[in-house]
Each structure stands twice: as C-alpha cells, then as structure tokens.
Design goal:
By secondary structure, the protein is α+β, with helices and mostly antiparallel strands. The protein has 2 domains: 15-79, Roll (Structural Genomics Hypothetical 15.5 Kd Protein In mrcA-pckA Intergenic Region, Chain A), CATH 3.10.290.10; 84-215, Pseudouridine synthase (2-Layer Sandwich). The chain is 17% helix and 20% strand. The protein contains 4 helices and 11 strands. The strands form 4 sheets. It has a 4-stranded antiparallel beta sheet. A hairpin with a 7-residue loop joins strand 10 and strand 11. The longest helix is centred in the C-terminal third of the chain and has 13 residues, at 166-178. The chain is globular, with a radius of gyration of 21 Å.
Length: 215
C-alpha cells in the first residue's frame, strides 16, 4: 500500500486497490484494525491517514478510522491512482561504476536519481538501471530492491555498494545493521553560521509533507 497526503476533491477519479467482505460471524471491529490485519507490510498509521483522507470506504461510504465494521460489510480502499505493475522492466541508464567484482558493485549515484521504485517513481530508478546491467540480482525479502543493502535520498550524490550474490547481500546487510561500516556525508550550507560552523538538530519527517525531511 502506498501512502498519500491527498484528500478527495471534486472530480477525482478513484481506483479500487483492495476489497474485502466481512464474514457472517464478524464481530464489531475498527476498520483500521480490520485492514491492518489483511494488508501486508502496511502500518496502521498509513491506513488511518488513508481513512482520514476519505479513501477507506464501507458499503461505498467513506468512513473514519474508528468506524466499526459489521457482518457482510464491504470494505474497500480506493486511491487516486491506478494499481501499478510491480514488475521491474530493465532500463538502459547511464551508471557511473567505480568498482566491480564477482560479489559487489560500487557506483556513484547522481543527485536526481531515485534509488528504488516507490510512490510517484515507477521508472528511471537506480534499480531499473541495475536490472539492465545484470541479468539477475539477489533480492532477499524485497523483490522491489534487488541488490540493495542501503539507499541514498533522491537529491543526494554519493557512493553506493550493491550486492551481486546472496552471500554478499547477507554479509553487507549485516554490516549495515551492525553499523560496522563507516559513512561520511558532506553538505553544502549557507546563511549565518556559528563560529565553529556546527549545525545541531535532528532530522525527522515533515509534519506538513511526509515525503520530506526537516530539522
């Protein structure tokens, strides 16, 4: 399920993504809990946001997250974009490869390139380019991110390492999980800075736009 910050507006065309019919013996249950139990890899918070935006419907009527479903209710999730084909079609993209052997690939990801497919980015990602460069890459538990053990933001330029085998994927993933790898980030800043040039703060998701990060 893909998150969305939109709400229903006049003229919006909605597309049915999921549909469930409550069993005859269904006990009273919040609709957000009902959907959370049935939608894989989807948080309850995302479902609640979709309901507040008007995308969760029971018997063709938009409902709030705390609406309690009953036997035979028809529950649907309708979103303002069609269901996307999740198959990754290889694309011949210009990749700046710095190093490659039988186990790993090291490349420089340019700013502007999205690392893997996601909401609003279904083509032209690094993954599409990698799938053109290789016949096959290990995907672990996520077929949408073959070979990836870490990521960089769209607007960030930097070096990435890609696993070419199941063994390298497992070893690299453990290194990133254990934080035994070393990463350095350089940032260009402007404005009035303190004498030592230190910027203190924690990055978090923007409360106004969940797709952006802010201090």
């Amino acid at each position: 399920m893909e998150a969305t910050d939109r709400t229903i507006e006049d003229g919006d065309e909605l597309f049915e993504h999921f549909k469930y019919v409550a069993d005859p013996g269904q006990q009273l249950l919040r609709v957000d809990k009902f959907l959370c139990d049935r939608l894989p890899n989807t948080s309850r918070n995302r479902i609640q946001l979709s309901a507040k935006a008007g995308f969760v419907k029971v018997n063709d009527a938009s409902v709030k997250p705390n609406f309690r479903i009953r036997p035979h209710d028809v529950i649907t999730l309708e979103l303002p974009f069609p269901i996307r084909d999740k198959e990754i079609v290889p694309e011949d993209l210009d990749l700046e490869i710095l190093y490659e052997d039988d186990e790993v690939l090291v490349l420089n990801k340019e700013a502007g390139m999205v690392v893997h497919p996601g909401y609003g980015n279904y083509t032209g990602t690094l993954v599409h380019g990698l799938m053109h460069h290789f016949n096959k890459l290990p995907s672990g538990s996520n077929p949408q991110r073959p070979g990836l053990v870490h990521r960089l933001d769209k607007l960030t330029t930097g070096v990435m390492v890609v696993a070419k085998s199941d063994d390298s994927l497992a070893h690299l993933a453990k290194q990133f999980y254990d934080r035994s790898t070393e990463r350095r980030y350089w940032a260009l800043v402007w404005g009035d800075l303190s004498e030592d040039g230190t910027v203190t703060g924690n990055l978090a998701r923007s409360l106004k736009n969940r797709k952006l990060m802010e201090l």
